[in-house]
Design brief:
Shape of chain A: elongated
Radius of gyration of chain A: 21 Å
CATH superfamily of the largest domain in chain A: Umud Fragment, subunit A
CATH class of the largest domain in chain A: Mainly Beta
Helix content of chain A: 10-25%
Number of domains of chain A: 2
Order of helices and strands of chain A: HHHEEEEEEEEEEEHE
Oligomer: homodimer
Chain lengths: 212, 212
DNA sequence: CATTGACTCGAATAGCCGTTCTACTCTTGA
DNA sequence: TCAAGAGTAGAACGGCTATTCGAGTCAATG
């Protein structure tokens, strides 16, 4: 749906989103202009109409601060489904978001829907949302999203506890029926990547298609 | 901190909260006046200054729509701690809130912090937040907050799965080491009350005092 | 009765807001 | 070179906004 945006308009949208998050209300055209170093209010109006035409915002004509975001400002994107068991491709979800807040920075976080039972002993179930903080490193015992790189590009991903051992990395499921994945250090460094670690989980009961 | 509010100002604050939730921006004084059937904008300003003096809102002088709520609009209150094991008094938490959204109606929902392991087989852990939808009835198998009434007033509460059986109600923990609570139908009707059922859980990792 | 305090209205004001218009400067491509 | 399009500035306009002021009502209190 949304067309890609130029650098300038992308920064302008970013300012609007941050302003709303900070102030609890949308900015006026003049406030936008001041922040973006635009001298003319008409000029701001021009860019806003661009953002509107491309589906990023909706405006209410003539109303002061009449800007609405088409995506929920507090949501973080649900980027797809991840296997807790065997690594699978992260299957992308259509533009879904989940609201979290509570200290979660939406810029550096995203969510995945868990498939499978392999983290069940850590009480992460099929259908749960895991909230991931993007980071390239982690500590022993963290639950992480680990991605296998195939010729440098991300391939299959899995959700596991991370343990750095003498000669290898151990990706440990939380299910007695499943074996850990052992990866030699050099292969780990060459072919694997940490995408982030789990900072929260959210489970909905009774909703459509959720775990009971 | 907040002084109690008269009926009129309470409804006015409620309108403002709902307007923000609906429109994504605070209302203008005139919009408030129209909704509250107040003819004069000065009159609206008067009541707004009352709300501000009593700590319910903060205003930014001269700014259009310059109203901020002092409590987070999307949060639902964390009302206390509930035992998943033996019934305990619901221990009240200080004005904490947790952000949920995602279709959860803040008017009819609240959250509790879980203590104990008795719902562990349903993968609800010590330290998890359970989001409760207020309702007096429930269906078999729902996870509910059940309260024992002592002379009509709420006493101890517990978190269990609810099953209505022939001659009794069974409150079933999800922990093989614990026994269900059986309550005869007439005692149930006289002395117990459903406060609501679990519609979601939220778990934070790595934060202060959370379950690892 | 007189007073006080809470609440209400109507009008006025100064400034803010979104929008529109004209004119100008670039860059791109035919 | 010429035309088209995107981006910029400045000014102007009509409407909207928050705030203030003066005056009035009503109930409770002394």
């Amino acid at each position: 749906m949304p067309e890609p945006l130029g650098e300038f308009q992308r920064r302008m949208l970013e300012f609007i989103v941050n302003y709303i998050r900070r102030e609890g209300m949308p900015p006026t055209n003049r406030e936008i202009g001041k922040a973006m170093k635009i001298a003319s209010t008409g000029h701001v109006d021009y860019h806003l109409s661009m953002l509107e035409k491309r589906g990023y915002i909706v405006r209410e004509a003539k109303k002061s601060r009449g800007i609405k975001l088409t995506r929920h400002p507090w949501g973080i994107p649900v980027e797809g489904t991840i296997a807790a068991g065997e690594p699978i491709e992260i299957f992308s979800e259509p533009d879904q978001t989940i609201e979290v807040g509570h200290g979660v920075d939406p810029e550096s976080s995203f969510a995945l829907v868990v498939r499978g039972q392999s983290m069940i002993e850590d009480h992460i179930c099929d259908g749960d949302y895991v909230v991931i903080k993007r980071q390239r490193t982690c500590e022993n015992g963290d639950i992480v999203v680990a991605v296998h790189l195939v010729e440098g590009i991300p391939g299959k991903a899995t959700l596991k506890r991370f343990f750095l051992e003498k000669e290898q990395v151990r990706l440990q499921p939380a299910n007695a029926e499943l074996e850990p994945i052992y990866i030699p250090r050099d292969e780990w460094d060459r072919e694997w990547e940490i995408q982030g670690k789990v900072i929260a989980i959210v489970r909905h009961y009774g909703g459509p298609g959720r775990a009971a």
